[in-house]
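Dissemination and training. As part of the outreach component of the grant, students in the summer workshop were shown how a complex can be specified as a set of sequence lines and then modelled as a single object. The example used during the hands-on session is reproduced here so that future cohorts can follow it. Participants entered these lines:
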Amino acid sequence: MATKTLTALTLAAAVGGAAAALGTTGTVSAQDMVKCYGIALAGQNDCANAAGTHSCAGQSTVDFDGGEWKLVPAGSCNEPGSEEPFAGVGGTIPGLEGSDPNA
Amino acid sequence: MLRDLQTQFRVGLLGGDAAPALASIENDVITPAQRFGIYRNNVLGSLAGALAAAFPVIERLVGERFFRAAARSFVQQSPPTVPQLLAYGDGFPAFLEAFPPAQSVRYLGDVGRLEWGRVDSMFAADAPALEPSALTSLPPEALADLLFAAHPATRLIRSAQFPIHTIWQVNQPSNPDPRPVDPGLGAEAVLVTRPGLAVETNPVTPGDAVFVQCLLQQQPLAAAAEAALGAEPDFDLQGALAAHLGRGTFSRVMQASR
Amino acid sequence: MTTPPSTEFVVDPIPASAGIGLRHPHVTDFVTRRPPVGWIEVHSENYLGAGGPRLAALEQIRRDYPLSCHGVGLSLGSWEGLNVDHLARLRALFDRFQPGLVSEHVAWSVQDGTYLNDLLPLPYTEEALTILCRNVEQAQEAFGRRILVENPSSYVSFAESTIPEWEFMAETSRRTGCGLLLDVNNIHVSAHNHRFEPGPYLDAIPLDMVGEVHVAGHFVHEFDDQAILIDDHGAPVADAVWALLREALRRLGSVPVLVEWDTRIPPLDVLLAEAEKAQALIDIASTGRVRGDTGAPVHAS
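and obtained this result:
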């Protein structure tokens, strides 16, 4: 593809070659479909109170107050257990500072 | 009146002044604030949890505690407007981009757009993928003006600046020990498709990104291919078409009416 | 390469047996194992996407099980009325999957178009009852069918409430003709949280209107030294709730009973064992009255 002016012939060759490379598209096997069923990817509505009082990580607490949280770049965050999964990437790692109402 | 009570609850549940709502609650066994807090925590916690399900790589990148706090801020600012959690979160990437505490990590927005593209793709309408025979049955002179209809589940995410596919791939929650990625590696574009029922996430070359973008914008095949060659002199049209046929990027083709 | 909807379903009545809530982690198990439960229930809102694997999975599982659609987002108690787009999406879901039962909650979750994703409490007043009944009637009209409404778990009571919850439930059914979904875990949770006895609750419920019963686990949270029960659906059904189920079934005869588990979801076999326990209680009760599928009573001789 050295030229920018595509002739009908060039297009036909590319389209024909691509189609030949693929053959016909297949149908999905039952096994593949079942595999797809196992992927969640989004929140699920439910009718339970899953987070009302639990104090474990990731849940909110009874007296959660947005004002108690202070988010700062992690350079100044040395709390035990703060995660730095992206260390060495180049950017500063964001972290969390302040009183943790979950603790 | 019920209207006032529900308004007061909404305000208090989303982190606003709860005093009017508390005034309507009986003080019995535990305090109204404690009782109201159960609902508030469930509202904020369950919606933050829904965001965590949709943005697992963002959570991995910033850590769970930062994620939860950021998610709660987003929930308070932009609560859902439809009662389906599968549709909640499209505004979260832009929120992260503007979120002051996250300013030191500029790629979160684009990585978030990639993740949302996957969710959006997963729940998009079903449609057959374009069959190769739909192309080969056409006369060669019809190809230049051919228009392509995207499959409903196709999403193209182009970052102007960051290697979003590499960041996304390396930081999968299933990867216990992600290697460092240099965010200055260069911009990447990602194509999300759903051939069959599985959501696929593939990087595409700069030329292919332009090619797909043009076709999604209803430009004819020849114009899209020329734009792609302009962006990437080595753009492989045949290889790109073969890949798109295999991934179900498109659903059908239409002859342009002239 | 996709699998468009192909099966034309007809309504399968929900049998008077134990069912379980179909939750995502068990979907592949259901497809590959076809576990022996009488019926399944899903949360309608999780299936309102346009397409994709979630709907395809339900399509496949529905071939093997009668289905109940349990809504969690319609907000029947909203002052502002119902979202007509949401009603239409639900109607399309019901038209496609032909559920044997359709149910929702006596609660609200939408205000000024904002969806709060929780089953929020109503004050039990004449005004709220009027609004609820208006919305129930609108939903039944939009769906072209009768619905069941479920008693909620609650953590607050309102100073302005004038009607006991059980009367509020019964009156909703009387005024709109809707059936009742009696959640005995919710009765237990609310009775504890508001310190009332569950017995009079059961006494006040019009038995002929009960089309389904729910059981689930709950969580005990201590506020200082006061225990408050949280309806988290994250544990085995408590003994006190099994006892309440037994008492409810003694009055109801046999009726569909659903085991719900939404938080910290265990392996499917754990849930199936809970369903077996429920089934045993149904079997004991079924020596009494025999009931139809939608709550309309069929009296055995």
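Chain A has two helices and two strands. Students were then asked to discuss how this feature might be tested experimentally.
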